[in-house]
Specification:
single chain, 477 residues, 16 helices, 45% helix, 16% strand, elongated
């Protein structure tokens, strides 16, 4: 059996992956807060974990993995969106409007991640709502964990709040590599008179009458963000599980707080053995930001005509532990590559993935290395297809765009034939008149539109390049 090695953020080392139970490998990904569309950065950890899920099921068996990804559906932004709808005249209680909004957003999320070819989380190969828990369905488990933390002396109640006592957990900061005092000096912390220490964080907070809330020993309120994942992962994966993943922006404070809560509530458990963190995403060399005008959602790209498979290819081409730069050039290059691979594998029955692809993926998800192998498999379409499918590429589910491109290509052939005929006529007239200005003008226009012009004694040949502008070609007829 191939040995998978993963870089563990907790130890900062690449380690051999040895599952707790090889017949039920358990992993958890922090999912989205469902108040709006998923932006491109939200999609990166989904693609990373989808590839890991595929690799684990390939190595250990198709029913060997339990993969859980949560939805945070209780949040101030969600509340604000629902309140705005209510003020705009929407019918129903605030709770109804919140449920309606989160259900709508979850539907969008599924559509967008499906478009990227990301398989939905599953329990040992069976897709289930249980693998995508909503935070609001696990409030009792959160309250129970908070009660345990208070009973063990790791949390306390104050003014309708329940707070975690950070100083009570000696290992706090081990994941992010900082001491508590350094964190206080270098980070913005919420100062509140009921906190024993500035770094203590909220487990439970009170809700006013106009906000959603649940009854608890500390009064009507709602959970803090960090307790959600600790309670849901314990309920669905146990006190110890194999892999916890998310973006590097979650390492502190979210993941640090998860570790503290879970390890203090269950001191004999390991919580997560391996932590995987993907780096952040940039756009054309700059941090994605609404203020810079380079912020976009997955749906924005899909609506611009960029296929989900192309988005996936670009996201996976940079190693997950390195910052990724989304560029239009990368997207076009990915489209060209995928279109070529789909032409080569059309009508082919897949064989088995090339062993070198599996070896690359087993080396800390070296997808770039795996893609390099695929580039060398053009002479073996069956292996190319099988290897692509292992990476979540070349499947029929996300291949409609290529069929559309083929149809467009048929129309393009006709267009190029007409332009070739026109060019030949202009060239023939120029040979007589000795005025080649018309030939030069048309050649320059064709080149600008992405067409290579080849002239010889045999005639004129027009060759479509990868950056073709069909609209400009139509104007030249």
């Amino acid at each position: 059996m191939v040995q998978i090695r993963l870089t563990n953020s907790k130890t900062r080392k690449k380690e051999d992956f040895r599952p707790i139970d090889a017949e039920n490998i358990r992993m958890y990904l922090c999912g989205p807060t469902v108040y709006d569309r998923a932006h491109l950065g939200n999609a990166r950890p989904v693609v990373v974990m989808d590839i890991l899920d595929r690799l684990l099921r390939h190595v250990y068996g198709t029913q060997s993995v339990t993969y859980v990804r949560n939805f945070t559906d209780v949040d101030d932004k969600i509340n604000a969106t629902a309140l705005a709808r209510k003020e705009a005249g929407a019918q129903g209680t605030l709770e109804d409007l919140i449920r309606e909004r989160t259900a709508e957003t979850i539907g969008w999320y599924h559509e967008d991640m499906d478009a990227l070819g990301a398989a939905r989380p599953s329990i040992k190969g069976v897709v289930s709502d249980k693998a995508e828990p909503r935070a609001t369905d696990y409030i009792p488990q959160m309250i129970a964990m908070i009660e345990t933390l208070i009973a063990r002396g790791h949390a306390y109640a104050a003014e309708g709040h329940a707070l975690f006592d950070v100083r009570s957990y000696a290992q706090y900061g081990a994941l992010s590599g900082r001491s508590v005092d350094d964190m206080i000096a270098g980070a913005r912390v919420e100062v509140a008179p009921f906190k024993r220490d500035p770094m203590d964080f909220v487990l439970w907070k009170p809700s006013s009458d106009d906000l959603p809330g649940w009854d608890s020993p500390w009064g009507r309120g709602r959970p803090g963000w960090h307790i959600e994942c600790s309670a849901m992962s314990e309920e669905l994966l146990g006190e110890s599980f194999d892999i916890h993943a998310g973006g590097i922006d979650l390492q502190f404070p979210h993941h640090e707080n998860e570790i503290a809560q879970s390890c203090c509530a269950h001191p004999h458990g390991e919580f997560a053995r391996i932590w995987l963190h993907n780096e952040m995403l940039q756009v054309e060399g700059k941090k994605m930001s609404k203020s810079l005008g380079n912020f976009f959602t997955v749906r924005d790209l899909l609506d611009q005509g960029i296929p989900g498979e192309v988005i996936r290819f670009v996201l996976m081409s940079t190693h997950y532990r390195k910052p990724m730069d989304w560029t239009a050039e990368k997207a076009q290059a990915a489209r060209d590559t995928l279109w070529e691979w789909r032409k080569l594998t059309a009508g082919v029955t897949p064989s088995a993935p090339d062993p070198r692809v599996i070896e690359a993926l087993a080396d800390d998800l070296n997808v770039a290395g795996a893609l390099a192998v695929l580039h060398g498999l053009k002479g073996d379409p069956a292996a190319l297809l099988a290897s692509g499918l292992l990476l979540g590429l070349l499947s029929s589910d996300i291949g409609a765009w290529a069929a559309s491109d083929d149809a467009a290509g048929e129309g393009l052939d006709d267009l190029l034939d007409k332009l070739s005929s026109k060019f030949s006529d202009i060239r023939a007239n120029a040979m007589v008149s000795k005025d080649f200005s018309g030939v030069d003008t048309l050649k320059a226009a064709l080149t600008e539109a992405g067409v290579e012009v080849r002239m010889s004694k045999a005639g004129v040949e027009l060759i479509a390049g990868p950056r073709l502008d069909a609209a400009k070609l139509e104007e030249l007829l």
